[in-house]
Design brief:
Helix content is 43%, strand content 10%. The protein is mostly helical. The chain folds into five domains: 6-74 and 204-252, Rossmann fold; 90-194, Glutamyl-tRNA Synthetase, domain 3, CATH 3.90.800.10; 262-363, Glutamyl-trna Synthetase, Domain 2 (Glutamyl-tRNA Synthetase, domain 2, Orthogonal Bundle), CATH 1.10.1160.10; 366-406; 413-506, Arc Repressor Mutant, subunit A (Orthogonal Bundle), CATH 1.10.10.350. Helix 7 links the parallel strand 8 (217-221) and strand 9 (244-248). The mean pLDDT is 94. The structure holds glutamic acid (GLU). Glutamic acid binds at residues 10-12, 44, 206, 220, 224.
Length: 507
């Protein structure tokens, strides 16, 4: 029996889950589902200093809202747990010792000031200070002192464990999206793997866990590509088979220049998180006496996007099935997905396209389903009215938020531009609509077809063009030249209200 593929999404709880992370989770999910594999949620929370309160909760809730479920996680459990790295300290300690014993890692005691000095000194000479084979014997570490001293200093002072990067060789490895990659070890520094606070760094914990959790494919953002050579060296130092790698292209600002950030969203008025996020008060600003204000970022959920639409949009950020089709359900995407069709180049975030995809997903819902998703967000619309309202406006919806506000003219008399009325009225139109209003009376039994026939007959009798008549009626009912079908709007607001809005402009 061939072994199942095992995928993982491994966020660090250093803040809210950004659309980039969400897309990484989605690609892992699609590949796992497509190949009948398993998906793990592992929380990489070993960096205590960068940990942000409520971040893990935000990540988990965002994934749940979008519909990505995990076979294993700290919530669901699983045979490879614990799934929060902060609960796996002993495992990393054991493994870093293995590397030290094998000669692949060493203790270092260098003071921050010393390293800063070297960095600055190199900079002044136009060079870059790299802690590696070229200078490690001149620095303060277990390679440059005898065993007894090392043991004493470990007991007495703070230390880190560094990886002993092999000197002057090439590491060759493969990325599914980018092909073969060759990196010279000359420019790789002896990265810190373990700190004296008993915590591993990202690199060690990530590699150890991917191995122990039997991960077969690592799909993650391009920002991790520069770390890949080190990770491959670590696998090889442990004598482990490395997983397959796929590094996803960056998500770029709508202008295409630079990585998409939360500031872009705030500036240009679109979300970058699935769910709302409130930044804690910035202590620096507070210290400076600036007005302390929490920053609230509205998420896609609060902005009225459907999770299915966000999924559909995100998958196109760096992937395409080929062909013209753009609207897919999650199940259809599972069927279509292949890692080979992911491109290398950055993907521009296009909020307009997302809005269009959202509208397409809204059109795809049955009216009952649409009612169900709109109801909690549109409490200001009477429950009994909601269904007929949605039937009327469904083709025009881009999001499911603030619907009353967006179609206020269906609930309240609009302010009408006199200029528009002048533009749309003519003698024949006036005669037609006057006759229509008279015949319409207050007959509530009239349906759409009958109203249409009535208006049409009046137009014929008064030699008016039906299109022109409709234009004038629209101006009276909506106050602008927009909105759903005129007759359907008449039915929705009722004959009495229709009569009222039309009469007002008949002089
Ligand atoms: N913890 C890393 C992050 O938050 C994970 C990178 C990886 O997937 O290896 O991006």
């Amino acid at each position: 029996m061939t072994k199942k593929n095992r995928l993982r999404f491994a966020p660090s709880p250093t803040g809210p889950l950004h659309i980039g992370g969400l897309r990484t989770a989605l690609f892992n999910y699609l590949f796992a589902k497509k190949t009948g594999g398993e998906l793990v949620l592992r929380v990489e929370d070993t960096d205590q200093a960068r940990k942000v309160e409520k971040s893990q909760e935000h990540i988990e809730n965002s994934l749940a809202w979008i519909g990505i479920d995990f076979d294993e996680s700290s919530k669901t459990g699983g045979q490879f747990g614990p799934y929060n790295q902060s609960e796996r300290k002993d495992i990393y300690k054991k493994h870093v010792n293995v590397l030290i014993e094998k000669g692949w890692a060493y203790y270092a005691f260098d003071k921050k000031e010393t390293l800063d000095f070297h960095r600055l000194d190199h900079e002044k000479k136009g060079k870059k200070f790299i802690y590696n084979a070229h200078n490690r014997l001149k620095l303060d570490n277990s390679l440059s002192m005898d065993k007894k001293d090392v043991e004493e200093r470990i007991q007495k002072e703070g230390y880190v464990v560094r990886f002993k990067t092999p000197s002057e060789t090439n590491v060759v490895f493969n990325d599914i999206i980018r092909g073969e990659i060759l990196v010279g070890t000359r420019d790789i520094d002896d990265k810190i793997l373990f700190k004296s606070d008993g915590m591993p760094t990202y690199h060690l914990a990530n590699v150890v866990d991917d191995h122990l959790m039997e991960i077969t494919h690592v799909i993650r953002g391009e920002e991790w590509l520069p770390s890949l050579a080190l990770h491959v060296l670590l696998y090889r130092a442990f004598d482990w088979q490395e997983p397959k790698f796929a590094h996803l292209p960056l998500i770029l600002k709508p202008t295409g220049k630079g990585k998409l950030s939360k500031r872009d969203g705030a500036k240009l008025g679109f979300p970058v998180y699935a769910l709302e996020w409130e930044d804690a008060v910035n202590p620096r600003r507070e210290r400076l006496g600036e007005k302390a204000k929490d920053e609230i970022y509205v998420g896609f959920k609060e902005a009225g996007y459907l999770p299915s639409a966000l999924i559909n949009y995100m998958v196109f950020l760096g992937w395409s099935p080929g062909g013209e089709r753009e609207i897919f359900s999650l199940d259809e995407l599972v069927n279509e997905f292949t890692l080979e069709k992911i491109n290398k180049s950055g993907a521009k975030f296009d909020p307009q396209k997302l809005l269009w995809i959202n509208s397409q997903h809204i059109q795809g819902l049955s009216t009952d389903k649409l009612c169900e998703v709109c109801e909690p967000k549109n409490k200001d619309i009477d429950k009994d009215v909601l269904k007929s309202f949605l039937t009327l406006v469904q083709p025009r919806l881009e999001t499911i938020n603030n619907l009353k506000e967006k179609f206020l003219y269906l609930f309240e008399r609009p302010a009408t531009d006199e200029g528009l009325i002048k533009k749309t009225i003519s003698e024949e139109v006036k005669q037609t609509v006057s006759a229509f209003v008279l015949k319409l009376g207050a007959d509530k039994s009239l349906g759409g077809q009958e109203i249409r026939k009535l208006l049409h007959d009046c137009a014929v009798q008064n030699s008016a063009k039906f299109g022109k008549v409709m234009g004038f009626c629209r101006a009276c009912i909506v106050g602008k030249m927009e909105g759903p079908d005129v007759i359907e709007m008449m039915v929705f607001i009722g004959v009495e209200e229709t009569g009222h809005r039309l009469k007002k402009f008949l002089g």
